[in-house]
Amino acid sequence: MLRVRDVTVRFGGIVALDGVSLDLNRGEILGLIGPNGAGKTTLFNCISGVIAPDKGTIFFEGHSLVYAPPHVRARFGIARTFQNLQLWGSMTVAENLVVPMDALGRRNTFSDALHLPFSSYAERASMERARAILHVLDLDRYAGTLAGDLPAGIQRRVEIARALAMRPRLLLLDEPAAGLDAQETARLAELLHAVRERFHVSMLLVDHDMSLVMRVCDYVYVLDFGKLLARGQPAAIRTDPKVIAAYLGEESKKLEGEVATVVPTRPQHAPLLEVKQLAAGYGGLEVIRDVSLEVRPGEVVACIGANGAGKTTTLRAISGMIHPRRGRVMFGGRDVTGTSAERIAQLGLIHIPEGRGLFPNLSVEDTLRLVSNTAGHDVNITPAFELFPKLRQRRRQLVGTLSGGEQQMVALGRAILSEPRLVMIDEMSQGLAPTVVRQLFDIIRVFREQGIAVLLVEQFVESALDVADRAYVFEHGSIRLSGPAVELRADRKLVAGSYLGTAVDATAVAAANGNGHHVDPALMEIVSVRVPAKVKRALEQRAEVEGRPTGAVAIELLEKVDHQ
Amino acid sequence: MTSRLIFRVLIALVAFTVLARIPVGFDVGFKFDAGLAVIWAFALLSLVLLTGYVGQISLCQATFAGVGAYAAGMMSATFHVDYIVAVAVGVAAAFALGVIVGLPALRLHGITLAIVTLGIALVFDRYVFQDHAFEWLTGGTGGWRVGQASMFGLQMDSSKHLMGAYVVLLALFCLVALLLVNLHDSGAGRRFRAIRDSELAAATMGVNLTRYKLLAFGMSAAIAGMGGAFYPLVAGSVSPQPFWLFTSLQFAAIAVLMGVRYVPAAALGGAFMAFVPDVLTRYGHGTLFGRQYEISYDWFQIAVGVLLIVQLITLPDGVWGDLRHRVLNARSAAGALRGRKVEVA
Amino acid sequence: MAAFAAYTIIGLSLGGIFSLAALGIVLIYRTTGVLNFAHGAMGMFSTFIAWQVFYGWSHPFWPGWLSTLLAIIAGLLFAAAMGLFLEFAVFRWVRTREPVVKAVITIGVLLALQSAASLIWKNNQYHLPIYLAPQTATFTIADVPIGANNVVIIIAALILAFGLGAFLRYTTFGRAMRAVSDSPTSASLWGVPVGRVGAVSWMLGSLVAAVAGILITPFINFDTTSLTLLIIDALAAALIGGLVSLPLTVLGGFILGLLETYPTIWIQSLGFPRLVALLVILAVLVVRNPRGFAVAAK
User: Fold this and answer.
1) Among A91, A144, A441, B289, which has the highest number of CB atoms less than 10 A from its own CB?
2) CA-to-CA dists, residue A453 to A217, A414, A416, A449, C131, angstroms
3) How confident is the model over B197-224, as pLDDT tens digits?
4) Local structure of B7: helix, strand or coil
5) β-bridge mates for residue B291, sequence order
6) What is the spatial distance between Cα A1 and Cα A24, in angstroms, rounded to a whole number?
7) Which residues are bridge partners to A304 per DSSP?
8) Do A86 and B207 touch (CB under 8 A)?
9) What is the pLDDT of residue A115?
10) What chain B residue is nearest to A97 in terms of C-alpha separation?
11) Rounded CA gap, A277 and B260, in Å?
12) Which residues of C touch chain A, with CB atoms under 8 Å apart?
């Protein structure tokens, strides 16, 4: 159905994709995974029409996609959802669904303005279909709500519904599990299967969440550094050493229950940071309700919990990025609730936000020297280079061009240089390969050695508990549990229950494989074959083993069938 | 569905009958203001479509109106046609220019589009409307003088028969306003709004951006041009000054002040722009604490500027928008009890 | 051929003005996210203040150079004050809004300033003979008289541009300004005083606009609108620099000056140079468009 051949994409000097080829068969759910920066989003964008490849071809059901603008691809039957949710917020959910239907039908602006009979009729028909789709996805009650007013999880479902309204043959899903916790992801997996059954769509899925990919996909392609690293069935990919090395890193070892050295508990000091009954949120939404925690000098405290539980919001409310609505924040004995972020940073409470909070157009050196601005005097930046020798070579390079891991090093380097009393780090490991993450967690230990307290928000529960003295478990906007890290690690159920990030879900239900189509012998063609995807894959594998083209193997088999 | 349509048509008719009677009995200056108010209201309406519905920013609406005015003036003064033809030509010319201006809009957004439209407004203001090369359109330094004209046998001119022009203008305005309000809820309107809310998603979901953006610009320019086409009739002559860059900027300012997404706001804005300065200059002078003072047009413009700044800092949806929200909130509280979806024109 | 050289110098001095104006725009835009449509109007107002001091309030007994100096100082002081005022009264409150909203606010500022100036100084034409070099110092190239002042403008523009660039690159505060221009939220998390940086940017920007206005006024009869409308040319130059790079902006200004001057050899038209500016804007925007779909409006 979809044939991508030798696609190459260059952005300036960087090769984002290097001769990647991919096949998607009718009825399949195909997964595309890889570490951050591997090129999967770029490939995805090429297929959906956002960018054009420098070299290579993309064919969809015989149509070449290379020069087709997005709306033409829509007409071919390709629909997509967006990672950052591009719903039409000022329109209701039903209207959101109706637009693609209209757009692909033959609607006329003037007859619409005059509400001519043709338009009214088409309107009613579209609305009917929209309601039907909403019903399948269990969204009926939201039909009349403005899309902008819905919570994020529902918005995701609406995005999928909208894409389905187009009657697509291929649905491209861009990180559909982003921001969902384990339960929601499981529901998403079921939803995707149901969608395939009811709507007969094939899907291409890009995501970081291995549990979703393993559950849902029939076949998986793995990219790394812009090249195809491996492909195969999910179970095979999961155990492929190359993939594990590049992507999962040493995470699998941690799951075996290895216990790291126990850190001795600190003597009781007066708390450096005290948060009492903090409440905060965005707009009409209250994200954290009643959060109380404390950090003592020199301690490392971890915050874990499902996505959306309020960990990031808590850090932001503490550091002044957003204003708390209720509650108090005390730092070093002073009340800093509601103080500006600048002032709080100057007091010695540093926040490294999600995304690292760096300056893309400043060089590494300039960024580190910025610390002098806050300190009020010139600060020697050499200690940062001693800690992160890699940065020394890159001192003149613009921060925006560094890799994720290097950027994190810059952020941490600055943290060390400003001699803070407390550093809050939000999702340090996000989007980084596990090998890099390992190194960064070691830096946390350096912080502790220097007497700097650390408040860590982390999705890699194992690593976080490994390095922390204590931990708080967040759930739905407040703290459910707290205690010494050692105790929490021993509670297996807790660890499994919270969001495990890229760790493989060992209890995943095997994906319901197979497609929704039947073999149609009368129309079987060798080149675009309407056979079950599994059969085609098996043919390909056999052909690879025998070193012959797939078509030849297929012909041979057919001849055998013929003769029987 | 149709009950809503009937409701709107009724409102349009009522508005028309009421407003048509107002200037009767006042002097020519006032009638002129009334006519001007509708012409400006057309321009503001064009912004409701372009910026309010489709989300494209434009700082050259006065230019479109000006092109309509000059084209109509030229047709009437040179060829002495029935004024309806002159208006048609004006609208067509404005539409064509709108589509051309829409071409850069296909690739530009936000600030860069604003800059380009600003440049266009300036070029037309300083160059096209004033240079020898375009005398065929502008009628030279004096502009066109339109003495008398007729439309469907109705006599119109800028002094004794000003009411004729005003009534026709008003009728057209009510019609176009009605069409725009209907457009908002229609399929095409939804496609426009989809472009405004998320162009990326709109394109991916099958909306042909090129077609709809060019259409939006063309229609918007045509609407502004329609109003402009009546200017020679109402004022008696055309000159570049009413259509210069600062007028375009004022349109943008007032549209935002009143609420750029709402049709009635356009009418309000038009009246504001035409009447307030005139009233101020006529009655705003005298002595205060022993000193002579005179409120001139400049004061009006300062007020607009300051109001715009204050409003953008505090009320992003404009005066009408804010009112509408208050009404909606009150009604939805009541409506929720009855379990109905609430809609307001 | 020599006429060409003459026109080149005139074009470059015009370009110098554009560069200065554009520098202010880019500086303000980079550090506060505000594309200041009112930049020309701000320069205009400061220039009028200078005029007022020069003609309205100077003593007939003072030597000429004192009047000139006082006028310039008054203009610059006013410019700095106006910049600070705008930051504290207006733009401080909209730091987190979208760029388009902030730009529309500057339209409000433009309208207000424009009308205020019109109110005070009416719609007359003015002439402000502030010369940095003696007026009589001229030389001729191919029968075209070139004032030393033309050259002065070019030099002044270059000095200011380099000065600003050096300030940004090598000083601590300059670094802070660059950080804020990259990402205001990150900068505040780093303890960089975002408010102070914004205020200084507005001040510097306003100053540079005033310098541009004062430098150009000896050569033209200006009124309240003509300087305001310089904004288009300034924007064109700023766009050549991509709204980011100061050196390219300066270069862009000079190039635009040349492009607007050369055609006057053949075409005598007051409005034609504006068309050139527009074409340059279009060309730059079309060429600079990122590949593929323009994601996220500016």
Assistant:
1) A91
2) 43, 15, 11, 10, 62
3) 888 889 888 888 899 999 999 999 999 9
4) helix
5) B288
6) 6
7) A473
8) no
9) 60
10) B205
11) 42
12) 172-173, 175-176, 178-179, 181-183, 185-194, 244, 291-293, 295
Structure tokens at B293: 């003072």
Name the band, by pLDDT with cuts 50, 70 and 90, for residue A465. confident
**Directed axis angle between helix B245-258 and helix B318-338, to 10°?**
20
Average pLDDT over residues A332-359: 88
d(CA A302, CA A291): 14
Q: Does A512 touch chain B (CB under 8 A)?
A: no
Structure tokens at B51: 């910026």
Report how many Cβ contacts below 8 Å link chain A to chain B: 108
| Residues A497-529 pLDDT 10s | 443 322 333 323 222 222 322 222 333 344 344
C235: contact with B, CB 8 A cutoff: yes
| CATH 1.10.3470 is held by the domain B2-285+292-307 | yes
CB A432, CB A405: distance < 8 Å: yes
Query: Given the structure tokens 């424009």, which residue do they identify?
Result: C114
Give the neighbours of chain A: at least 3 Cβ pairs within 8 Å: B, C
Length of chain A: 564
Task: Please give the model's pTM, rounded to 2 decimal places.
Answer: 0.80
Ordered structural domains, chain A, with CATH: 1-67+205-253 (3.40.50.300), 274-497 (3.40.50.300), 525-563 (no CATH)
**Interior CA angle at B243 toward C90 and B285, to 5°?**
65
Where helices occur in chain C by DSSP H, the ranges are 2-32, 39-51, 64-89, 99-121, 148-170, 172-182, 184-189, 194-216, 224-228, 231-240, 246-261, 272-288
Write the pLDDT tens digit of every residue in A120-148. Answer: 777 788 888 888 888 888 888 888 888 88
Which residue is it, tokens 């020394």? A392
| Domain ranges across chain B | 2-285+292-307, 315-345
Q: How many residues does chain C have?
A: 298
Which chain A residue has the Cα nearest residue B340?
A: A144
Cβ atoms of A57 and A19 within 8 Å: the answer is no
The two tokens of residue C92 are 């401080």
